Amino acid sequence: MKKKLLALSVASVVAGQAAALDLTPGNAAGTVIYASEITNTGSITITNSADVTSILGFSIAQGTSKYLRYNFSNVVLGAALTAGSIATAASATESATLSSGGAIGSDFAIFELTDTGTDLATNDDITLSLTQMHIATAAATTVTYTLYETAADSVAETGALYSASGSIYSFAQALTFTKVATTPNEIDVTADSQQFTNGLTNDQGSYTIGLDVGGLGIVDTAGAAVTYGGIVNTTTSTVEVAGDYSAVQDLTGGVPDGTFTAGNVVAVNGANVACGAGTAASALTASLATLGAPAAASITVCQTVNGVSVIPEQTFSATYKPVATSAAWTVSDVDATLSTHQKNGDSADINLSLTPTNLTDPGVYSNYVRISNKTGIAGDVSMLVYNDDGDVVALDLADIAGFSTSLLDAQASTPIINVNDIFAAAQAADPTFDVVGDSRKLRIIVSGEFADVDAQNISVSTDGSTFFTFGSM
Questions:
Q1: Cβ contact 382:345 at 8 Å
Q2: How crowded is the C-beta side of 411, counted as CA atoms within 13 Å?
Q3: DSSP 281
Q4: Cβ-count burial of 191 within 10 angstroms (0-12 exposed, 13-18 middle, 19+ buried)?
Q5: Percent of the chain having pLDDT more than 90?
Q6: Residues 149-169: what's their mean pLDDT?
Q7: How many Å is the Cα radius of gyration of the chain?
């Protein structure tokens, strides 16, 4: 089977590597995939001869003729076709005539093929040679070959004897920016949340910049495989990582001074690797670190905190801001969510807190909760309050009547907290939160920003004759 090459250029004629299109059932289509980053300045030109081959699809007896129609989708002819554009394995004993279409700008061509010698068989190859095609948008382009008995059928596109179609070329994004799953060390609440569990340095997440060329074979306008450095200017491209960098600010006399040293945020080669020496950020503010775009690789972003400021819990986000190497490429910003910094505090579950007594239909037991900080470090206390339907409300200790702060001192315990007050605080936060029906209990998860929290649930019968406790789980 005769095969030639396809190539793509932008408003120009460029020779290059590609593949011929084979519409024969069971054969590879030969579609060439071009990078969608190729700039379209108004026209994209496919040049070099491109052969579209199919089986004839129906025999043509000696002295008879049939009509071949080619329809093009999302593409028009850039060079006129002629009778010589059609060829078979027995070209010396057949005669082709261009009957309709085939002019520059046309999206179809009809040929009359007459057998003047040995009969043409159903499975004989028929090949259309294209010398140039024009498209307006970078989208998939198809060609359809159809065989008809008569000229009228080929014009009306009815009564087809055989038809086959395939994609001449398509486009796919080559440039990629992908988050890599990482597990940063937690903020150490035993160190007043001023450092991480591994010290002062921690990662903010990993990402990979690369090209989606492995399985797709994406090529450039010359038909060569795209390269990262061919598309992206790695000197001027950047990655911006947004977050709260207040704990990274500089110190003057041991006190945060509102200034930032860019070297406290670095990019280290490798995905989810231990932080160490890397390439420093080119700029750092209270909310944004700007890093140079590396060569195609996985990168871990790391920060070093000052050890004095409280490290905020947060999730970092990144924006890859590529700059094209030339006007031949059009690239766009790409976003990704990186890792989350969270504290390593403790929690305690109260799986059974009985029905509050401040209801129209109250429970028969008064319920109380006592929370203890069993460490040498003070920290805030919060809780999640669930009803039996699975609805949940988040509360800070200070949201509950009788508390002006959520901070619980080292080795301290709260006063006895009436569950009625917890339920009232939950309803104040979410008026739709309720306990109704036959099962009207609460479940409470108490969290402390310290390493060991304990919660006791105490119940007393309404007549005061019975007293019992439930420990945290």
A1: no
A2: 1
A3: P
A4: middle
A5: 41
A6: 93
A7: 36
CA-to-CA distance for 349 and 18, rounded, in angstroms? 64
Q: What is the pTM (predicted TM-score) of this model?
A: 0.68
Angle at 58 (CA atoms; ends 57, 63), nearest 5 degrees: 135
Q: 113, 65, 64, 69: which is closest to 89 by C-alpha?
A: 113
Tokens for 214?
A: 């492995």
> Is the separation of the CB atoms in 422 and 361 below 8 Å?
no
Let me know the angle formed at the C-alpha of 270 by 264 and 274, rounded to the nearest 5 degrees: 55
Check if the beta carbon of residue 346 is closer than 8 Å to that of residue 450.
yes
Do 7-172 and 346-471 come out as alike in CATH topology?
A: no
Q: What is the dihedral angle through the alpha carbons of 282, 285, 289, 291, rounded to the nearest 10 degrees?
A: -10
Any residues with CB less than 8 A from the CB of 63 and at least 6 apart, and which? 114, 115, 116
State pLDDT tens for residues 279-295.
Answer: 999 999 999 999 988 77
Distances from the Cα of 311 to the Cαs of 98, 285, 290, 370, in angstroms? 76, 15, 20, 28
**Two tokens, residue 194:** 């001023």
Positive or negative, the Cα torsion across 115, 118, 120, 124?
negative
7-172 fold: Immunoglobulin-like (2.60.40)
Q: CATH assignment of 346-471?
A: 2.60.290.11
pLDDT tens-digit series, residues 20-60: 677 766 554 567 788 888 888 777 777 655 788 899 999 99
> If you search the block for the tokens 């995905």, which residue do you land on?
271
- Name the one residue in this structure whose structure tokens are 């929690």: 347
pLDDT digits (tens, 9 = 90+) for 381-427: 988 888 888 888 889 999 999 999 999 999 999 999 988 899 899 99
Domain ranges of the chain: 7-172, 175-210+229-341, 346-471
d(CA 264, CA 249): 9
3-class SS at 79? coil
Whose CA is closest to 377, among 400, 344, 340?
Answer: 344
